[in-house]
């Protein structure tokens, strides 16, 4: 293992250990904030998987996050009585529904029109705008105001989970999502996806149905984003149309770009870092924090194209591939 | 092995594009093992046992040499679907043999974008072998190579024919390289075959000389 790969592994383990130990040093308020950031981290992982691994630049990732959030809210508020009001059912729907929507959207974009690059970005951007407008006008899901009083995560006896218990629940969910993404990325499927990102035509001529692979990874990513959305709504207690819209889709792109899209842990920590910075900036810079954040984003993209953590957190390649290179 | 020779613009690469499904033909058939494959998509034709080398090396510059080999190796093992790839473990002995074949045994972890042009060309040929195709199409496999590298590639291609038993179609316009391949040749001019035979025959054919050097006045 090279020195940089050893450093990447050590920092990755250290980051997870640090997150595990955070309740020892942070108060309830900050643990609540960190739980939200970790949820956004899961969302960022979903984009990191398709953008970093397969080169699919999606400007509508919030569509899946928002559908997951609405699914959780609709079930737990009893608006879908035939499904009951269990949070587990809510979470299952928050994964399944966005997954199906992602599969359908992926099929239309990749199988139907073979979109890629800027065309794909524009179509997903438009889809996010359309979804947000549709959510505003659909009274069943609360229209412009959205849905309120979504119950927080609760224990089997019905009592709401404590702040720390919620944090650990979300933290373990994030770790499992990370490991799933890492498993895909480091498997031969990950190599083929990287091949598609690098040279789609070449991969096609080796016998791979490139569109099918894109639809598959897009679907998995949609499920992950929906899962994050489901967790999100239990923490904030509400869902509203901007959650499926363009603005959040752009934000997640910034988190992933700042963290480093080529490394999954970079994408995850990018969400935490940007959200924490936003929080600090909004407190100290008042209404100018958005300008400062925009400037920070431009600076990072221009000066550090691999993101803040892209190089630091790069892992050694899987053992089957031998020495050298990074993933 | 069969070599297709002809000046630039005579339709050699277009022929490969039709055979591999990149273009659908306006008419006629492309028969592979008795089956008409004209109009099928490239990945379907590839699955029938056709692998293609591109004029500009068709390698993955951002990936390591080992990763470049793994992609066709998995396809050669019939692991085309996303789920079947998740559980695939490539045979390390076969991978090492392929790396030996292209002379990159010590460079498995090197990024392909950083290796020499000749190494990329050899790597792509090894990738075609990894794909385990029965018919290999090589589009100007020595483009941009020195004389010594050209001889090494000619030797590698002959090994593919003699030791691996592959059927090979080579597009080329470098007569010296074609001579080293020791195979039958067809010469194309403006989309039509104008001569056929061994190197010694076609190199003396007046139509071939004319297509390369122009008409004597």
TrEMBL record, chain A:
Signal peptide: none annotated. Coiled coil: none annotated. Keywords: Cell membrane, Membrane, Transmembrane, Transmembrane helix. One of its GO terms (molecular function) is branched-chain amino acid transmembrane transporter activity. GO terms for cellular component: plasma membrane. The chain crosses the membrane at residues 37-56, 63-82, 88-110, 117-135, 167-194, 215-232, 252-276, 288-309. The keyword Transmembrane applies. The keyword Cell membrane applies. It is found in: Cell membrane. It is a multi-pass membrane protein. This is Putative high-affinity branched-chain amino acid transport system permease protein. It comes from Mesorhizobium plurifarium.
